[in-house]
Design goal:
The chain is α/β, with parallel strands linked by helices. It has helices at about 60-70, 120-125; strands at about 5, 10-15, 25-30, 35, 35-40, 60, 85-90, 100-105, 105-110. The chain has one domain. The strands form three sheets. It has a four-stranded mixed sheet with strand order 3-2-7-6. A three-stranded mixed sheet has the order 1-8-9, with no helix packed on it. The protein has a two-stranded antiparallel ribbon with strand order 4-5. It comes from Halorubrum tibetense.
């Protein structure tokens, strides 16, 4: 889908920054999105685990985090999902955000691809 997604289609639920590869993501009340990603995040600083395949800013649906908890009993809402921005209100429609302009606070981002959980995330979550 190409186009613009309006602000009221969803909401930011929480924000996380991991300052270096393998570091626990820290919840933040606010983040600055700058050229290269989320200011202070490992990928913006060039220290991400998958640096060659990095995404500047990553999103995850709060509904997906809840589904993981319901299906597996694993709660990754503390940031172990390794994504920067948790959004609510898109749920199954997260793919509709691909290639659309999405306003998050003062920033305009364009999600370009899915970032499914990887073995690194599963190991960190205790799966």
């Amino acid at each position: 889908m190409s186009g613009k997604v309006e602000e009221d289609d969803g909401a930011v639920e929480s924000l996380f920054v991991a300052s270096e590869s393998g570091a626990d993501p820290e919840p933040k009340p606010r983040v600055a999105i700058v050229d290269g990603g989320v200011d202070g995040d490992r990928y913006c600083r060039g220290d991400g685990h998958f640096q060659l395949d990095a995404c500047a800013v990553t999103l995850v649906a709060a509904e997906a985090i809840a589904a993981v908890r319901e299906e597996t009993g694993i709660d990754v809402s503390d940031g172990r999902h390794r994504r920067n921005i948790v959004v609510r209100g898109f749920g199954e429609g997260m793919d509709d955000l691909l290639d659309a302009e999405v306003r998050i606070g003062d920033a305009l981002v364009r999600p370009t691809r899915r970032r499914p959980p990887c073995a690194h995330v599963e190991a960190l979550a205790g799966a």
